[in-house]
Amino acid sequence: MTRGRIPYPGMDNKTVLDQVERGYRMDKPTNTPDGVYTKMLECWHEKPEQRPTFEHLFVYFDDYFISVEPNYREAE
C-alpha cells in the first residue's frame, strides 16, 4: 500500500512500462504487511487468468481489516 504516494518513485511512465513488461514488480512499500504484499504480487501476475478475482480480493481484505482493525465495521 503506497498510502497515497506515487508508486515506482524515481521512474517516469515509460520506464515503469518497460520494467513491468520485463517482469519487474514494485518493491514492498514500507510498513506493508507481507500478506498484503503477496496479494499485490498475485494481482500483478503476468497471466490475467492467474490473478485473483475482485470477489476474492473483497473477501480477503474484508477479513484482513476485521482482523487488524478493532473498530472496523463490515459494509452493510
From TrEMBL:
Pfam families, per database record: PK_Tyr_Ser-Thr
Ranges of residues in domain Serine-threonine/tyrosine-protein kinase catalytic: 1-58
SUPFAM superfamilies: Protein kinase-like (PK-like)
UniProt record, GO biological process: cell surface receptor protein tyrosine kinase signaling pathway
Signal peptide feature range: none
Coiled coil: none
Molecular function (Gene Ontology), one example: transmembrane receptor protein tyrosine kinase activity
GO cellular component, one term: plasma membrane
Protein's UniProt name: Serine-threonine/tyrosine-protein kinase catalytic domain-containing protein
Organism: Arion vulgaris
Lineage: Eukaryota, Metazoa, Spiralia, Lophotrochozoa, Mollusca
